[in-house]
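Entry 14. Structure prediction run on the chain below.
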Amino acid sequence: MKIISIVGARPQFIKLYSLSKQLRIKCKEIIVHTGQHYDIEMSSKFFEDLGIPSPDYNLGVGSGTHCYQISEIVKRVEKVLVDEKPHLVIVYGDTNSTLAGALAATKLCIPVAHIEAGLRSYNKKMPEEVNRVLTDHCSSFLFCPTENAVKNLQREGFKNIINGGKLINVNQCELSIVDNQLPIVFNVGDTMYDALLMSLKNAEKKSKILKHLNLKSKEYYLATIHRAENTDDIQNLRNIFEALVEISKNMRVIVPLHPRTKKIIDSQNLLTSISYSSLKIIDPVSYFDMLMLEKNANMILTDSGGVQKEAYMLKVPCITLRNETEWVETVKDKWNSLVGTQKESIINAINNFNPIRAQKFAFGDGKASLKIVKILKQLIAD
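Output returned:
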């Protein structure tokens, strides 16, 4: 069975990591890197650290508007698919690479499997929300990370929910691919949780980031900002950085600066009007280093969906710099607080948010990748 995995951004490399190990046991996997993230720390370093095979194709799309990226990826992916003739295309998450890969495959009548299907923020102004909704409706197989994701798809009219959305016993799966059975929705758990469990011990052994930055566990805050709704709104960005400066008076704040955010800050001369010397702004870091920064942080402030989720998995309180989230489970479990981008709200959350209840945990058992591969092998074989 020949499968093509299409990736293009950091969170997708992490999702690919655990699944690829399972796929390559008995399948031929071809990795296509769109080049959406081309910074070495945001791209090739992740492949190196995680031991993911080098991409078979690097499309080199680079930066650009959403329409430019999507159209270029569709064109370049189409050629790969025509040449390789895969049985299945796998797309991950909610980036422009996700949607473009799904569109190209669908137009060539190649089945699409969407990893991390069913997430919804219900904010159509977010490019990621548009990407994930359209990708779900292009896909033949939708692999959900949580029960809530399954319920979102049910509300949108998806009817083939295996075992009512519960984890499927793949040994009893006797479905075959015929038109009236697609699409099919499965709740398998989260592949990022698989990756985290697989990586944590290696990260603890190999990462030197705490020593390099002279950090002690639980004696710093970690902050990441990259969403368009924050970076493209200069007032939102200013509010966030002013809040970070304020809280850094009491505890160090580490900010691995996303290339997108850095570009906008530099073009707007934002930090020239803010006394930010108390912040520790660093370049993007590897996956292992990021895990160690997250695990040992006193609290995490972020607008990233993946970082929210990793914070929850590592039992670190999270302040989300947005008004909504696709990871509602973390908020309902009271380990994540949505605060928006007002300076006072951010500072107030830092001073008062203190999760103490045990987590219910909604992201599976760490075997999502194994379940996905078993299901796909059965379905494609049939």
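The chain has a mean pLDDT of 90.
Filed with the rest of this week's runs.
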